[in-house]
Design brief:
Blueprint lengths: L2 H13 L2 E5 L9 H13 L4 E4 L4 H11 L6 E4 L2 E4 L1 H10 L1 H11 L1
Helix pairs in contact: 1-3, 2-4
Length: 107
């Protein structure tokens, strides 16, 4: 991983309480898994930012190394990696996601 790309990834994660690295944008997700995450966050009514990894091949590859997670989308809340679409669905259904998001936005 190049230091420049790592710094860009870390800056995005630190500057945004909820950061989603995904295919497409929150207005136009480019895959079903990314769309699942956007729909969950929209349902919660919380502010979040997205980064389109399709427009940046370096970040697309290196975010997987950064998180040690092989798939996209990747969700970070309060600087902490939560997981991808399946984990977000599980956390949402259990009520844990709402709690984590509330804590993050209050800090």
């Amino acid at each position: 991983m190049t230091p420049e790309v790592k710094a860009r990834i870390e800056k995005l994660i630190q500057e945004n309480k909820i950061m989603v690295f995904m295919k497409g944008s929150k207005l136009m997700p480019q895959c079903g898994f990314s769309n699942n995450v956007v729909q969950i966050l929209n349902t919660l009514g919380v502010p979040f930012e997205t980064y389109d990894i399709l427009s940046d091949p370096e970040v697309r590859q290196e975010i997987k190394e950064y998180s040690d997670w092989p798939t996209i989308p990747q969700v970070y809340v309060n600087g902490e990696f939560l997981g991808g679409s399946d984990i977000m669905i599980e956390l949402y259904q259990s009520g844990e996601l709402q709690q984590q998001v509330e804590v993050a936005l209050a800090s």
